[in-house]
């Protein structure tokens, strides 16, 4: 990118930013409480895959992995078992084909988890997509849709990114509420793109879906605070995934250099204990968590990291 992003984007909210996993949040050096049952949607590829492995390293007792493609889950299941064994951990894996655009499919997933463990400590609503590519014109032009006219993928993007997050959150909320001896934490995958109004960088449908997810998390935090539930919107960093690996926009090249495991390490840190002071807020995986903790009092007093209109 040419000029640095404006302060309201939050890139420099903590003085130190990380592109790789810092040693103080290495999942291998973390021991999660027992039991720790984790649900990860969109787990078959990309960020969900590596978030699942982070929980295996950290000693989750059970993990539900789901996606629309069973063969991806077969591969992940083997890698989870291998990773857990290498780190001296034991973990039960439940793999499920789940389409987050289907309420029936999501409810079936929740029932499987309830029947197997009877509890949920962490739900990571990770399933997401970006608008379908368009045929680019001149060399170097973005193959992502720019503006309203080019982007015909609104229905699919909002159904997966926003309504899918809503379906998962709604289905698993009773189990989160009931698991009162755990962190009771819902994390949804948002994006730094939620702050953008530049459709050449972020397609409008994707931007709107992630912006809405932040507000959804604020509502969940407010409504379920009485039940002890913590809800966080997490920007996973700029990572090359199956969703981003073929972007041709020149700006994206400088934005996709983060470690693919960083978001998983931050998820583990966020959920190894209940962090209600971050509930209802936007958190970036790039921020230094030590510095973030040092800002805790200010974050709470000034009610920071939420989406507000400047007047």
UniProtKB/TrEMBL annotation:
Gene Ontology molecular function: any one: oxidoreductase activity, acting on NAD(P)H, oxygen as acceptor
Highest taxon of source: Eukaryota
Name used for this protein in its record: NAD(P)-binding protein
Lineage summary: Eukaryota, Fungi, Dikarya, Ascomycota, Pezizomycotina
InterPro entries attached to this UniProt entry: NAD(P)-bd_dom_sf (IPR036291), SDR_fam (IPR002347)
Keywords: Oxidoreductase
Sections of the chain in a coiled coil: none
Classification via SUPFAM superfamilies: NAD(P)-binding Rossmann-fold domains (SSF51735)
The family this protein is said to belong to: Belongs to the short-chain dehydrogenases/reductases (SDR) family.
Gene3D superfamilies membership: NAD(P)-binding Rossmann-like Domain
CDD domains given in the database record: SDR_c (cd05233)
